[in-house]
Structure formats: structure tokens, C-alpha cells
């Protein structure tokens, strides 16, 4: 029994609008140096799956730039490997995972495969799913479709046979089902449904609040240990940043910091992405700063999510809350006048 | 540039003064700067200078280097045309010939060079740390219509006798070439970076090979011979950071230079990136009890102790209460609770036990070894 995987990178997630103006949900930066899609892709390759279709809808420039031919995941193969499968859905597809409409557009991906079973997964759930173990469970249960479920809900990952997914793709219109998730939620006959109990760490990123909460949650050692397993690394696009520099006089405590950054000021309970500069006497508390942001001297930021390339000028003070973190959009420049 | 430049990177050096660091790897493979190996610098310089055909000559403990460089992907040297070629010594009908000197290493790969059909050959050393635009050097070589151009660096007079020195006239024509003299009359040191017109190099390599008593070395044989023959030999004045990391002390210094903004080597430079093979590791974490000051820290580290003025490589765990100052801690090591290190290089694979203390005075640098730790344990100091 062998697996192929279909990653749905076109699901519409309404609550993430501020972070998806220029990108799909799947390419939202997460945990300092990753994009959300790195997690399902890494889970897939760590489960020895070599045939992976990424179904994406516009805007996908940032996603293509990130995954390329799949080299970082060892998916640049002569045989099988990564297939980038754009869909004609506008404005981010439908709201459930595994759209049969999208799959139908690339039905050959499923038809031509030599694998027996298919993993269908989303790109906004972060975890460490072992699909080999899930497949063994699926086969032992004898059910038609198996869903991975954790302590607090569904991981929106499914396993079914390739034969069944082909049947569903061909008949979804007359049966009036939209997606794999839709089918599992409706529990339509004549199929049978099983559950694979997942016990590890997982985070569902379906709103800005969740994004903020789960990002900060990574500072908890238990979460970190369960997500970053030495035997199952999370792969991402390589950037060749130098190690991070901590200048004399900086104060950093409880922070996750990616390479290429320069920390001169104070950082607490925060996540700092690649190539960020935190200026002298600036202080950050409960902030998520994405790559290439510049935070000038004397800034005071709390509960702020700064998207890529944000520039915060000298002396800016911004304070959000855990429920309503302030989101600075990609490339935004914030002056002291703006913040008053 | 329409002319073809081929770089030959000499990476066979042992570096015996680096002690246990080079027992099982060649000097160019030594870890440096939190995530790099020394050879990343000349390789990245090639890529950034637009040179895409590079031969890497290996001899001493080559496995780590061969594995590290692979197809050359991290340096964009995995090319259809050119790219990187590893050149270890090989056997031929007459037997196996080891690389006796720098020139013999190139001579024995003369067929590789011939197959590349270069116009210019750039000779580089795999064990120097510097950022240099080789394209400018080749342009200079062409402007001067030289047969060979030697890149030189002004060194402090007191250190001059440690180098191969070059004396020039005002037009930078080389007038004398002196290897490590006792009483230097010049402070222009050769960086071991040469550009040759290919025909000239080919001719001199053939000639030198025929001379039995030759040591087959560029500095001792080829260049003095060319000078004696009145070939056009010019010096190219390089300005910037350059370091030959030959000893434990100089390796430590070169790492500390990265923490000193006035030292001149800036790695946070997107215009001249140093490429390296990247392990896939999560970001570094500084915990509640961690303190990091004036230091450089790489991915995968978890810092719960105090790190002052140090360079910390990937995947290092520094436990609560531990203090690491003025030190270099290489990848994958663990520094136990309440350990205290000052002016120490911790090589990969050596873990520092709980409570271990090694505090060096101002002049001393210690390369930590398992033997040192074992004898500390044996002395019952825990």
C-alpha cells in the first residue's frame, strides 16, 4: 500500500484576510522561518510520500516562489515528486478542504498515479502527522475514509483510496458534495467513516487571533519539543542568512529568533523572523515580527503582528491586545504621527 | 566578460597547528562564524564574482569536503556548463602521484584545465577568510597586460616575516619575491591568490615539472622563475579583511572579529552573501533565564544560560546557570548547568559537563578536548 498526497492550498479562510492580501493562506509566514505549507509538506515527505500535488488558487506568486520545484523537500524528482496544480477558482476557492472541483481540473494527477491511497490535507494546520501510521490505522479499520482528529478538533487531513477519490471526483456534482471535508462532515452514505486519533501537537491557523495565540504558544517548551522533532524536521526554502547578531546592551528573554537578524534593543515573549532589525532601546513584548522588518530606536510595541517588510520609525508606540493584536500590513511604513 | 576564467581552489591542506580540529577534516572544512566552513568564503567569492567553473583540489582527509561540496548546489555551482569539479589525486599508468606542492597539484590536473579551454586561470587557497571580487582582479590583470597578477595585502610590519612578501616598483610591477624573510623590506604580503594567462601557466607548469629538484610550489618555484625570465608580473592591492586561519589562536581571533564592527568582516551583507550548506533547523530560542550579549547565535540553539561575546554554532544547548564568554561553541554541543567557559573553543562532538570550569587568562585560548574533560572528571572535581 502506497500513498500520494493532495495538499489543498486554495481553501478560503475568511479570518486571515489581513495576512492574505498578497498571498494565499498556505504561504503565511509562521514560527520565524517557515511558511504554513512547510508543515504539511514536511509531514508528507517525512512519511516517505514522493508524489505530491499542491492545488493552489491565485494569488499564488508567493507560494510558487517559496516551493519552487520542491528542492527543499527533496521533491525535485525524475519520477513523481512535486506537482504544482493551479485551479481556476478566483479569490481563494471554497471554505472546506479538498475541493472536488479543483481535483477534477487535475484529475490526471490522480488517474496517472501508481499509488493505492491518497492523503488529502489542508495548508493551515500545523502539526507532526505521520501518514504512514495513519494509513496503517486506516487499513486496519476497514473504513472508506479516515479523518485525523486531535484533542481539540479535526486536523483536516484525510486518507482514502485512490479508486474512491476518483469515483468521488467524477460523481461529486450529482451527489451534491463540494469537498472531502464536506463529505466527511455530512457522513453521506454509502461510505463509512473512521477516525485516526492524533496525540501530538497541532495548531489550526484560521483567524488572526488563532495565528497570534499559536505563534506565541510556540515559546512554550512543550509545544516546541513536540513540533520540532529531530527525526522529522520541518523543511523550508533556504535563505543563506548569517547567524543572528546580539549587540552589546540588547535584552532578549523568551524569544524565538530566526537567522540574519540584528538585535540591539529589547525583545520579550516574541517571535522574530529572518533579517529583522530591532533598534536601540526599542522594546517588543508579545510581538510577531515577520521577515525583513525594521524597528527603529525607541519603539514600544506590544501585541503587534508586523507582516513582511514593515518599517516602524523611531519612537512609535503601538499596543494591541491578545484578542485584537494590531496587524501591520506587508510593506507598511509606520511613523510616530501615525501611531498617535 | 567573454573570456573564460577557471578557478582552481587548493583545498588539500592539513593545518596541523589546528590540532584536534583537523585530525579528521581538511583545514578548508573547519567550521567558522557560527554556520560556515572556511571554504565557503572562496567558493562564495567565485559565485559572487560570476566565476562558474571551479576545480577543488583535495588531498588530506577529503571525505568531509567532498560530501560537503557535493554538486555545489549551495553555491549555485551545479551547472550544465562548468560548475564545481572535485579533483583529488588519482592513479595513472605511471603510478599514483600525490600533490607534492601547490604547483604540482595544478600540474597533475592540467588535462582538466585543458578540457576547460580557459583564457585565465585563477589560483585560490581554500583556507583563507575574506570577501573579494575576483572579477575586478581579472580586469586589473587584463588592463596591466600582465602574464601573472598576484593579489597582495598590506600587513603590519611586525607580522611581515610570516608571509610571502612582494616588493614592487611604483607601477606595481613585482621586482622581488621573498618567502618569509627574516628582515622584511616590504609589507605587501601575497594572499595566495594568482591570475595567470593560461598559456603562460601551462608552459611554466610543464617546465617546473621537468625540474627534479623543484619543490613544485608557486611561491618558491614558479613565480621566482617567471620573475627571472622577465615575465610581466604585477601586484593587485587588495583592501579589506583577510585572514589565514592557521592556528587555534587565529581561528579564535577570526571568530571574535565577527563580533567587532570595526574589524571589517561583515556577514550581514545581502550584496555579497556567503553561501553555505544549510541544515534544516528551527529558529534559535532564548529562554526566560537566557542572556545573550554581544554575540552571534545560529539556528537550532536553545540558550538558557549566559552568553557573552561569543560565537555559537547551530544546535547548541546552553543550560541554566552556564556562562560562556569570549568563546566559540561549535555545532551540536551541550553546555551543562553552571559550567563556565572563558576563551575556549568547543569543537563539534565535545559536550561540556555540568559544573565544568575552564577560565583562561587574557592570553590563553584552549581548544577543548574530550581528554581534558575526562581528566577533569578523573580528578574528582565535580
Features:
heterodimer; A: 340 residues; alpha/beta; 8-stranded parallel sheet; 7-stranded mixed sheet; 25 strands; B: 382 residues; 5-stranded parallel sheet; 9 helices; elongated
Query: What low-confidence regions of chain B span 5 or more consecutive residues with pLDDT below 50?
Result: none
SS class of chain A: alpha/beta
- The share of residues in helices of chain A is 10-25%
Note the main sheet of chain A. 8 strands, parallel
Cα distance spanning the termini of chain B: 64 Å
Number of helices of chain B: 9
Tell me the fraction of residues in β-strands of chain B, as a range. Answer: 25-35%
**Sheet having the most strands of chain B:** 7 strands, mixed
- Would you tell me the structural class of the helices and strands of chain B? alpha/beta
Assembly annotation: heterodimer
Q: What is the β-strand count of chain A?
A: 25
The overall average pLDDT of chain B, rounded, is 94
Share in helix of chain B: 10-25%
Q: What is the rounded Rg of chain B?
A: 22 Å
Largest sheet strand order of chain B: 5-4-1-8-13-10-14
Beta content of chain A comes to: 25-35%
State the largest interface.
A-B, 38 and 36 residues
If you average the pLDDT of chain A, what whole number results? 95
> What would the principal axes of the Cα set say about the shape of chain A?
elongated
Beta-strand segment tally of chain B: 29
